[in-house]
Write a structure and sequence with these properties.
Length: about 240
C-alpha cells in the first residue's frame, strides 16, 4: 500500500535518508523506530509530500505521489508537534476540518469522546497543554476513518489514560485492515501494537522484520530486548558504514 524505492534525502550536506527501500501492507502496523535524529519524521514527511526526496520513488495505493495531492485523503496524520491557529477553539478546529472534507459522510468521533475533547470544545488552542494538543492531533488523524494512519510519536506526552485509549484505537485500526505506521523512540509504547518493525539509524534502514519472527529468532520476551539483541548480533557481523 505504501512503497518506497531508493529514497534519499539530504538537508544541505547532511544525509538524512539513504537509499530507503520499504513496502508497507494494509492490515499490518509498522513500528518505525530509531534514535532521535535518525530520520523518522523526515521519512514520514516524504510520504506526506511535506518534504521532497532528492532521489527515489514513493507509491501510495499504487500511485506515484510526485506532484499529486489527492492521495493524502487516504492518510490520517498525527504530527509529532501539531500546530494550530492559536485563537481558534478546539470545536472550531474540528469543524473546520470537517468543512474541508464534505465528501466524508461518517466521521469517527471515538477519540474525541475518549479524550473528553467535546467537553473542552470552547477552549482556545493557545491555552492548551502539550498533552491536550496531542489529543486533538490524534482525534483529527482518526476523524475521517482513513485507510492509512501515520502517527509520529503518538503517545509521547499523553497521560496514561489517554495513552491507553489511543492504543486501543490503534489496535482497532489494525484489526480493521488499515495500514498503521507509528514512529517512536520509546519501544515499550509499541509493544502489542505493531506487527512489523523497521529500525532506522543515521538514515539507513538497519533492520526490518515481522515482530513475531524477531521474537522467535532472539528468544526474548520483550520487544526492546529483542531489538537490542538483534542489533548487537548485526553490529558484530557487519559494522556500521562510516557516516
Ligand atoms: P527523528 O524524527 O528520527 O528524530 P528527523 O527526521 O526529525 O529525525 O531528523 C533527522 C535529521 O535531519 C536530524 O539531524 C535533524 O536535525 C535534521 N533535520 C530535520 N528536519 C530538518 C530541516 N527542515 N532542515 C535541516 N535539517 C533537518
Ligand atoms: Mg521525529
Amino acid at each position: 500500500m505504501i512503497c518506497l524505492q531508493n529514497i534519499s534525502k539530504n538537508f544541505g550536506k547532511l544525509p538524512v535518508l539513504r537509499n530507503i527501500q520499504l513496502e508497507w501492507r494494509a492490515g499490518s502496523s509498522y513500528g518505525l523506530i530509531g534514535p532521535n535524529g535518525s530520520g523518522k519524521t523526515t521519512l514520514i514527511k516524504c510520504i506526506l509530500g511535506l518534504a521532497i526526496p532528492d532521489a527515489g520513488t514513493i507509491h501510495v495505493d499504487g500511485q506515484v505521489i510526485k506532484n499529486q495531492e489527492v492521495y493524502r485523503k487516504k492518510i490520517g496524520y498525527m504530527p509529532q508537534i501539531g500546530r494550530y491557529p492559536d485563537n481558534m477553539t478546539i470545536g472550531q478546529v474540528i469543524n473546520m476540518m470537517k468543512a474541508i472534507r464534505p465528501d466524508v459522510t461518517h466521521v469517527d468521533e471515538d477519540l474525541l469522546r475518549a479524550f473528553r475533547l467535546d467537553a473542552m470544545a470552547n477552549k482556545r488552542m493557545r491555552t492548551l497543554s502539550g498533552g491536550t494538543r496531542q489529543k486533538v492531533s490524534a482525534a483529527l488523524a482518526f476523524l475521517f476513518s482513513p485507510p492509512i494512519l501515520i502517527l509520529d510519536e503518538p503517545t509521547a506526552g499523553l497521560d496514561p489514560i489517554a495513552s491507553e485509549a489511543l492504543k486501543e484505537k490503534i489496535a482497532w485500526a489494525k484489526e480493521n485492515g488499515k495500514l498503521v505506521v507509528i514512529t517512536s523512540h520509546i519501544l515499550s509504547d509499541l509493544e502489542e501494537l505493531i506487527t512489523d518493525i523497521v529500525y532506522l539509524h543515521e538514515g539507513y534502514v538497519r533492520y526490518q522484520n515481522r515482530v513475531a519472527t524477531l521474537m522467535q529468532d532472539t528468544g526474548e520476551m520483550r520487544l526492546s530486548r529483542a531489538i537490542a539483541h538483534m542489533l548487537r548480533a548485526q553490529q558484530a557481523a557487519q559494522p556500521l558504514p562510516a557516516a
